[in-house]
Amino acid sequence: MIVEHLSLVDFRNYATADLTLLPGPNVLVGRNGQGKTNLAEAIVFLATLGSHRVSSDAPMVRDGSDAAIIRARLGVGERRVLVEVQLNRQGSNKARVNGSPAKTNELPRYAHVVLFAPEDLQIVRGDPSARRRFADQLLIQRTPRMAGVLADYDRVLRQRTALLKSARARGIKGEGLSTLDVWDDKLVALGSEIIDARTRLAADLQPPLTAAYAAIAGADHDPRMHWAQSIRGGDPEEGVDAEAAEGAGSTAELFRAALAAKRASELERGITLVGPHRDDLVLRVRDLPVKGYASHGESWSVALALRLASAELLRAESPAGDPVLILDDVFAELDADRRTRLASLTAGYEQVVVTAAVEEDIPEVLHEHVVRIHAGTITDERERDETEDGETDD
User: Fold this and answer.
1) Where does a domain end: 262, 297, 316?
2) What's the pLDDT score for residue 244?
3) Which of 349, 310, 313, 321 minimizes the C-alpha distance to 75?
4) What values do phi and psi take at 373, rounded to 5?
5) DSSP string computed for 191-226
6) 33 labelled ligand-binding
7) Residue 29 buriedness (CB in 10 A; 0-12 / 13-18 / 19+)
8) Which residue of 51, 59, 303, 322 has the lowest C-beta tally within 10 Å?
9) Domain residues for 251?
């Protein structure tokens, strides 16, 4: 799959913008703050229904506007698909596919994108929420219907937690809140699906993660991952290691039993203490947790390997072909060896989009199509060269 053309209206710093991209490497060059990452963010949104920079959609709408529009023409072999999403500052977003109204959660069926960004270091060094976010965005690309499951789970979680807070304020304890059972049923049904999907994802990512890490780091440090799950007796959000707590039974059975065991504590604290929203993806190299033990270089290698493994997984599963790879200001963060290795590993994808403040940071293998960004103005060197050639011919 490739993005042939991207159009924006009232998105971030762009009143309007049009960007033509080619198969193979595309380089977007410009000083910081000019709008390079905004273009990358728009493409990523079509694939993941979220931003890698902010947790809500409103900041992506240009100041003074009520809505932003992202429109892209995608090429899948000989097929062309026009996808569009309107991000509303208030109310639900709206989507269109080939001009017809569509549900927004259908967009990831058409757009497959893997983003590498400086924020990726937070996947390995940050809070559990960063790792959950990484996994869930990949889940949506792998199985687009998971966007609805995740959204429904968040809604049920908010309503259940609001009920717990209300009960705490009224002094209700123990089994004195029978209405909680209804929300437990919904939480278990949706949460079990998420937990099982995440577990399968980790297992499927393991082989490409191992290969990608060795290719980037130039060493075999045996990178591993597993989910520390609150339904199995731990609480990763509070630093309790759940790895050794392997309860028997189906995910739904474990979930329901854990909720029952935590009912008194939940009523006392007014929060939901069990579920995929409390889980953590534990990453290890050299049999040690990456967070707290890995060097800066090892941490970067794990982060990059997770993205490459994601790309390889989507590449293997998608009938649309390769996902688009976006490397957003990543090369400035890497040493010379990792720059060269990452460039060689990604150059063979159907389409690669690279952003950089300093053009020299980008390895030569990725220099094919250069676009310059300045204060929201997009200048395509290919079009400029064609113009200059025409003037010379006259």
Assistant:
1) 316
2) 42
3) 321
4) -115, 125
5) HHHHHHHHHHHHHHHHHHHHHHHHHHHSS----EEE
6) yes
7) buried
8) 59
9) 120-316
Q: How far apart are CA 370 and CA 14, in angstroms?
A: 20
What pTM, to 2 d.p., does this model score? 0.86
Question: What CATH number does residue 99 fall under?
Answer: 3.40.50.300
- Rg over alpha carbons for the chain, rounded to the nearest Å, is 23
**Tokens 């937690």 identify what position?**
161
User: Which range, of 46-55, 59-68, 149-158, 187-196, averages the lowest pLDDT?
Assistant: 46-55
CATH at residue 249: 1.20.1050.90
Which tokens go with 58?
């409103």
Catalogue the long-range contacts made by 231-240 (C-beta closer than 8 Å, 24 or more residues apart): 231/195, 231/255, 231/257, 231/258, 231/274, 231/275, 232/258, 233/258, 235/273, 235/278, 236/128, 236/278, 236/279, 236/280, 236/282, 237/128, 237/278, 237/280
DSSP 3-state of 320: coil
71 is in an annotated binding site: no
Cα–Cα–Cα angle for 24, 328, 6, nearest 5°?
60
145 is in an annotated binding site: no
Cα–Cα nearest to 51, from 110, 133, 125: 133
Condensed to tens digits (0 to 9), the pLDDT of residues 96-126 reads 999 999 999 889 889 999 999 999 999 999 9
Q: Which two tokens stand for residue 154?
A: 């968040």
103 is in an annotated binding site: no
Task: Tell me whether residue 263 is annotated as binding.
Answer: no
